[in-house]
Amino acid sequence: MSIIKIKKEEVYPIILLMMMFFCIVGSSITGASARDTFFLTQFDRSLLPLMFALVAGLMVVVISI
């Protein structure tokens, strides 16, 4: 791995962390898409800003806990 200067003992942790990051980003994108779809099947699109504000507030509470 001479191109990006990764030491031999760092290869496994880097691969593991890259896979974890890929899974987190993938689940975030999938979750956001599903959230919007489920919301729009139940409510009018004019309520989307309210939903985004509520999700942001909920995330602040959950992360604080």
Write the layout of secondary structure elements.
Elements lengths: L10 H32 L5 H17 L1
What does this structure look like?
The chain has 65 residues and is mainly α. It has one domain (8-64). Helices cover 75% and strands 0% of the residues. It contains two helices and no strands. The chain has helices spanning 11-42, 48-64. The longest helix has 32 residues, at 11-42.
Summary?
The mean pLDDT is 89. The chain is an all-alpha fold and 65 residues long.
Q: Tell me, what's the shape?
A: elongated
Sheet-strand content, in percent, reads under 5%
> What is the helix/strand order?
HH
Q: Characterize the main sheet.
A: none
User: What's the total number of strands?
Assistant: 0
- Unreliable residue stretches: none
**Mind telling me the C-alpha Rg?**
19 Å
Classify the helix fraction into a percent range.
over 70%
Count of alpha/pi helices? 2
Give the integer mean of the pLDDT values: 89
End-to-end distance, in Å?
A: 40 Å
Give the count of structural domains: 1
Which structural class do you get from the secondary structure elements? mainly alpha
